[in-house]
């Protein structure tokens, strides 16, 4: 036997051993992956695929499935109620992101300072977050009541005219945003407080020597350094606000008229009140795409800021 | 540039006093190092000069202006911190510009000053980097650059080299000293490293328990330590200290507590029989065939010199000799003490006794 052929044989033996072990590996990891795969398929993949499948059908509950291609999507482009609901949803979302972000951040700055009973005050501020949305809706509905509600009473105390709050088309969105802000500013505060706690102390001392006053220290140091935390809060808030349903449904059901009908509520009506499952599914798919695009934009911004600050690689 | 005067400066946190009547005169352009162990109050004192801590009692003046109650920005000082304290989200350039920008300095002047400082410190190629993309030494240079662009009357350094590795520390030590010579600024520098203090300072202020143990030129302090603390703190390896008392018969002899007789140059008559401690630096003990017998415990060659740890009748002595020797443990050799380099201290108060 020549040396070369001995070498070849050894190599082929090695290859066989390697492929054998790879085969064992392929068999052995399945039991670990399978449970997760089953669950994900059942709760994510299947509903998704089913929704897509329904969105290209004209299908009312109890009637046979009827494939219509992209007809539902084309119909959506001319559906004024749908287009208005998108605009309303975006308005509602912007307001429900901005107001809690501002109030939550200010609260975090306040509660980050040393003060007596700080823990207790923080606890009280966080409480709305823990309440059940439907309960909140019932309480706020009473507070919004034009004659009996406490809000108009409070306005009267400072000499302002009573408002119709959720009972008038002009003020309904702003009123609902008030509820959203009251409930979700605490979440923003918690996230920002975490960010503030992680800030290094040294740069603030050098900033004092550099001559920065309290506002400049906030503007040039604190704000950029907590930006990644603000963006996390913003992303969470945006997704929550886009898909907000319970509070709006429980307080106004989309009314007066359709003045507070967001896409989610319209989708609910189409699918479950008018039983047009196919058309409703098409709304769901488009609405999902909208959320994905907006989230991607925010994620991108967050990554950019993280790269500058060194919080993400 | 300006002189700095500390006059009876005290600091207490509630009932806890950390500085007790510290007075130091720092001349214009002088490089003064506050040195001492952790917790001796040296950093607190520096932070009080910076305006980051309030002054409980006494006065701090820069030039002829008392600055006790001035905010940091109005004191015309710049400070370099141990942890650099750079702004993590700003590039090197923005870090250096920040102080000037806040003061409303015109853009052209900012650019000029930043370019000047970065040239001095060799930072030109790093200007667009973020602090986390720099090494420790580079970050420390940026911190110094931030101080230089401000062109302050007084530079304050708070243990700036503590976070650097040994080799870089030696290098930066030289750089800081060269920088001082170049700028001619008044510098107050805090460190716990007595070698930094010895090598860089025009004047050393040794602090101990919130008080000044001694202040003076580095070699004066080294040659004539005012008390036992300074004697042991300054110098590496540190001074050998022996307990005992002066001979009662008035002869120039010190008898240690283990009965070793050490000949001194002179003992004033009033100290005869007085309990005391004597100190001798390792380099002032030599090999001497007619001297005291000593047993070798450890031999540590460093290349340029050899450090021996010896046992003399139960006293452990560290000896530094310039020769290369190859003693084995338990070898016996004879040593002699340079009489005119022996220091004596009171047994109780630790203050220096004249010999």
Task: Describe the secondary-structure layout.
The complex is a heterodimer of chains A (313) and B (355).
Chain A: H1 3-55, H2 71-77, H3 80-112, H4 118-126, H5 133-144, H6 150-157, H7 169-197, H8 202-210, H9 214-242, H10 246-251, H11 263-273, H12 277-309
Chain B: E1 4-13, E2 16-26, E3 31-36, H1 42-50, E4 57-62, E5 65-66, E6 77-80, H2 92-102, H3 107-121, H4 136-149, E7 154-158, H5 166-183, E8 186-191, H6 194-200, E9 203-208, E10 211-216, H7 218-223, H8 228-233, E11 240-246, E12 253-256, E13 261-263, E14 275-280, E15 285-301, E16 306-312, E17 315-321, E18 332-337, E19 343-346, E20 352-353
Helix pairs in contact in B: 2-3, 2-4, 3-4
Which features would summarize this protein structure in a list?
heterodimer, A: 313 residues, mainly alpha, MetI-like fold, 12 helices, 76% helix, 0% strand, B: 355 residues, alpha+beta, Rossmann fold, OB fold (Dihydrolipoamide Acetyltransferase, E2P), 2 domains, 6-stranded mixed β-sheet, 6-stranded antiparallel β-sheet, 8 helices, 20 strands, 24% helix
Provide an overview of this structure:
The complex is a heterodimer of chains A (313) and B (355). Chain A has helices at 3-55, 71-77, 80-112, 118-126, 133-144, 150-157, 169-197, 202-210, 214-242, 246-251, 263-273, 277-309. By secondary structure, chain A is mainly α. Chain A folds into 2 domains: 1-41; 73-309, MetI-like fold, CATH 1.10.3720.10. The longest helix of chain A has 53 residues, at 3-55. Chain A is globular. The mean pLDDT of chain A is 85. Chain B is α+β, with helices and mostly antiparallel strands. Chain B folds into 2 domains: 4-226, 3-Layer(aba) Sandwich (Rossmann fold), CATH 3.40.50; 237-353, Nucleic acid-binding proteins (OB fold (Dihydrolipoamide Acetyltransferase, E2P)), CATH 2.40.50. Chain B has a 6-stranded mixed β-sheet, with helices on both faces. In chain B, strands 13-12-11-14-19-20 form a 6-stranded antiparallel β-sheet. In chain B, strands 2-1-4-5 form a 4-stranded antiparallel β-sheet, with helices on one face. The model of chain B has no long low-confidence stretch (mean pLDDT 91). The chains are: A mainly alpha (313), B alpha+beta (355). The A-B interface holds A 200, 202-203, 205-212, 216, 220-221, 224-225, 308-310 and B 50-52, 71-73, 77-79, 81, 83-89, 98-99, 102-103, 130, 132, 146, 150.
């Amino acid at each position: 036997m020549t040396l070369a052929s001995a070498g070849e044989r050894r190599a082929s033996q090695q290859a066989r051993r390697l492929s054998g072990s790879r085969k064992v590996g392929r068999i052995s990891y399945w039991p670990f992956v399978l449970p997760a795969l089953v669950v994900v398929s059942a709760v994510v993949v299947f509903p998704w695929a089913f929704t897509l499948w329904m969105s290209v059908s004209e299908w009312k509950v109890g009637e046979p499935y009827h494939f219509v291609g992209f007809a539902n999507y084309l119909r959506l482009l001319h559906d004024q109620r749908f287009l208005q609901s998108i605009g309303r949803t975006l308005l509602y979302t912007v307001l429900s992101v901005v107001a809690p972000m501002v109030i939550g951040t200010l609260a975090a700055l306040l509660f980050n300072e040393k003060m007596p009973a700080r823990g207790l005050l923080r606890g009280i501020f966080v409480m709305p977050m823990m309440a059940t949305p439907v309960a909140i809706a019932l309480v706020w509905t009473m507070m919004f009541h034009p004659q009996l509600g406490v809000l108009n009473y409070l306005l009267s105390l400072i000499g302002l005219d009573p408002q119709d709050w959720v009972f008038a088309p002009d003020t309904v969105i702003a009123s609902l945003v008030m509820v959203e802000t009251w409930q979700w500013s605490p979440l923003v505060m918690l996230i920002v407080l975490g960010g503030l706690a992680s800030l290094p102390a040294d740069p603030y001392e050098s900033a004092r020597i550099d001559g920065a006053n309290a506002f400049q220290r906030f503007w040039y140091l604190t704000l950029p350094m907590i930006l990644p935390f603000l963006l996390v809060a913003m992303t969470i808030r945006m997704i929550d606000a886009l898909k907000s349903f319970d509070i709006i449904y429980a307080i106004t059901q989309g009314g007066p008229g359709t003045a507070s009908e967001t896409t989610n509520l319209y989708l609910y009506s189409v699918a479950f009140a008018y039983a047009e499952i196919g058309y409703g599914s098409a709304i769901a798919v488009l609405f999902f795409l909208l959320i994905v695009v907006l989230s991607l934009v925010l994620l991108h911004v967050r990554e950019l800021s993280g790269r500058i600050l060194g919080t993400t690689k | 540039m300006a002189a700095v005067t500390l006059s009876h400066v005290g600091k207490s946190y509630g009932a806890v006093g950390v500085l007790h009547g510290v007075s130091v005169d720092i001349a214009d352009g002088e490089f003064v190092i506050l040195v001492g162990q952790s917790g001796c109050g040296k950093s607190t004192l520096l932070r009080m000069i910076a305006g980051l801590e309030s002054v409980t009692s006494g006065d701090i003046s820069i030039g002829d202006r008392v600055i006790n109650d001035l905010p940091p920005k109005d004191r015309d000082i710049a400070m370099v911190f141990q942890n650099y304290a750079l702004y993590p989200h700003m590039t090197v350039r923005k870090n250096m510009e920040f102080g000037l920008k806040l003061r409303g300095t015109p853009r052209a002047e900012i650019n000029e000053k930043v370019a000047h400082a970065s040239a001095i410190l060799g930072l030109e190629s790093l200007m667009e980097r973020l602090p986390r993309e720099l090494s420790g030494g580079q970050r420390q240079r940026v911190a110094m650059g931030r101080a230089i662009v401000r062109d302050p009357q007084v530079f304050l350094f708070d243990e700036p080299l503590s976070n650097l590795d040994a080799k870089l520390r030696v290098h930066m030590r030289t750089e800081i000293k060269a920088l001082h010579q170049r700028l001619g600024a008044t510098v107050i520098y805090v460190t716990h490293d007595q070698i930094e203090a010895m090598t860089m300072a025009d004047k050393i202020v040794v602090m101990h328990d919130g008080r000044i143990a001694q202040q003076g030129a580095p070699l004066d302090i080294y040659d004539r330590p005012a008390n036992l603390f300074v004697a042991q703190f300054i110098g590496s390896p540190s001074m050998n200290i022996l307990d005992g008392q002066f001979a009662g018969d008035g002869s120039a002899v010190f008898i240690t507590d283990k009965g070793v007789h050490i000949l001194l140059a002179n003992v004033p008559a009033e100290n005869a029989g007085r309990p005391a401690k004597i100190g001798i630096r390792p380099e002032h003990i030599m090999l001497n065939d007619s001297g005291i017998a000593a047993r070798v415990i450890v031999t540590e060659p460093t290349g340029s010199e050899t450090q021996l740890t010896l046992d003399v009748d139960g006293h452990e002595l560290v000896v530094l000799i310039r020769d290369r020797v190859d003693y084995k443990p338990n070898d016996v050799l004879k040593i002699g003490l340079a009489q005119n380099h022996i220091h004596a201290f009171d047994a109780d108060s630790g203050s220096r006794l004249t010999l």
